[in-house]
Design a protein that fits this description.
Number of helices: 13
Distance between the termini: 121 Å
Radius of gyration: 27 Å
CATH superfamily of one domain: P-loop containing nucleotide triphosphate hydrolases
CATH topology of one domain: Rossmann fold
Shape: elongated
C-alpha cells in the first residue's frame, strides 16, 4: 500500500514538473495570454526605448526592448558611477512609455556593492534628469536575499523598473538566475537592468549587454542653436559615454558608440563635427562676436579681439601718460 502511494506521488510530481517546464518554455505572447494580459498590455510589452542616437537604435533593432533583462557592464569598479549614470539616463529618456517616467524605480545593491561604489545619490541622479523622489533603494544582507527581492520586484507592474547592482562574479549567480529575471521581465512588461561592476563576461539570458566606459564630455556652448554659437574654452559640457554593444540578439555587436546626454531634453546625442572642430582653439579663445540687443547701437556680427587667457596688453607708464605719450 505504501509503495502504491509513493508511486502515485512520484507520478503526480513528474506531471507537475512537465507542466512547469511547458509553461516556462512557452512563447512570451502565450504566457502573457495565460496570465490574463489585455491587448493594450501586449502592445506595451513590445515598446522599444529609442535613445535618439540613430546608429545605436538601428543596431539594437529600433531601440532597447523594455520587457527584458538588459546588462550594463563597467569594466572597472571606479566606473560604477558611470554605469549608474547611464542607467539613470535610460530611465529618464523622453518619449518613453509614461510608466517609465512616472512610477518608482527599485535599486537593489548586492552585498558590498554600495560600500564600494556608494549609494545612488539624489542630486547626482537629478543632474541626469531623473526625479530622485522616484528612487527606492534596498541593500539585502545576502546575495540570495538580493536575488529574491529582484525577482519579486521584476514581476511587479507598480514599478517602472528594477535595477540589480552587483560587484564582481558571484558563485551563486549565473545563467539560471539571469533566466529567472529575464522571464519575470517578459511576464510583467517592466525592464530589469543588471549593473555589473568589474565582472568578467559569463553566460547570461540577457538579449542585450553593454559595456560602458568614460568618454570626453561634449563642448560647453553659449548661444547654442544660433548663428553665434561658440564653445567655451575649457568648459565642461554634457557627459559622454563610450557604449560598446557586446551582446545583441537583435542585430550586430562589437561597435562602440560615443553618446552624450542632454539632461534638459532628456535624450542622447552625438557630438557634431565640422565647423566646431575646424576652428582653432586659440582663435576661439581670442575672438568673439558682438550681439545686437533691442535698442542698442551695436551691429551684430562684428568681430573683436579679446585678451583670452594670455597676459593683459602692456599699458603706458604713469610717467608716459603725464608726458602725453599715452
Amino acid at each position: 500500500m505504501a509503495s502504491a502511494h509513493r508511486a502515485a506521488a512520484r507520478a503526480a510530481l513528474a506531471s507537475l514538473r512537465r507542466q512547469i517546464a511547458s509553461i516556462e518554455k512557452a512563447a512570451p505572447a502565450r504566457a502573457a495570454g495565460a496570465a490574463g494580459w489585455s491587448g493594450e498590455r501586449d502592445a506595451e510589452r513590445a515598446v522599444l526605448l529609442e535613445t535618439g542616437v540613430e546608429a545605436f537604435d538601428r543596431e539594437t533593432g529600433g531601440g532597447i526592448a523594455l520587457a527584458v533583462l538588459t546588462e550594463i557592464h563597467a569594466p572597472q569598479a571606479r566606473d560604477a558611477g558611470l554605469a549608474a549614470g547611464f542607467a539613470a539616463c535610460l530611465l529618464s529618456l523622453a518619449g518613453a512609455p509614461s510608466f517609465l517616467s512616472r512610477d518608482p524605480v527599485l535599486w537593489i545593491g548586492a552585498p558590498g556593492t554600495f560600500c564600494e561604489a556608494g549609494v545612488p545619490h539624489g542630486h547626482g541622479l537629478a543632474a541626469f534628469g531623473f526625479a530622485p523622489e522616484r528612487l527606492l533603494t534596498v541593500e539585502p544582507k545576502s546575495l540570495a536575499d538580493a536575488l529574491w527581492v529582484a525577482e519579486e520586484a521584476a514581476r511587479t507592474r507598480g514599478l517602472a523598473a528594477t535595477v540589480l547592482d552587483m560587484r564582481g562574479n558571484a558563485k551563486a549567480f549565473g545563467l539560471r538566475e539571469t533566466q529567472r529575471l529575464h522571464r519575470r521581465a517578459q511576464a510583467s512588461g517592466r525592464p530589469v537592468f543588471l549593473l555589473r561592476q568589474s565582472a568578467a563576461v559569463e553566460a547570461s539570458a540577457a538579449p542585450l549587454r553593454f559595456v560602458v566606459e568614460p568618454a570626453p564630455s561634449a563642448p560647453a556652448l553659449v548661444l547654442a542653436g544660433t548663428a553665434h554659437e561658440r564653445a567655451v574654452p575649457g568648459g565642461i559640457g554634457p557627459p559622454g559615454f563610450a557604449v560598446t554593444i557586446e551582446k545583441n540578439k537583435a542585430g550586430p555587436a562589437g561597435r562602440t558608440h560615443r553618446m552624450h546626454w542632454n539632461s534638459h531634453e532628456r535624450t542622447f546625442f552625438t557630438e557634431r563635427t565640422g565647423e566646431r572642430r575646424e576652428r582653432p582653439a586659440a582663435a576661439a579663445a581670442t575672438t568673439g562676436t558682438v550681439v545686437g540687443f533691442p535698442g542698442g547701437t551695436t551691429h551684430p556680427g562684428v568681430e573683436f579681439s579679446l585678451p583670452g587667457d594670455g597676459p593683459d596688453p602692456a599699458r603706458p607708464s604713469r610717467q608716459g601718460m603725464a608726458a602725453g605719450k599715452g
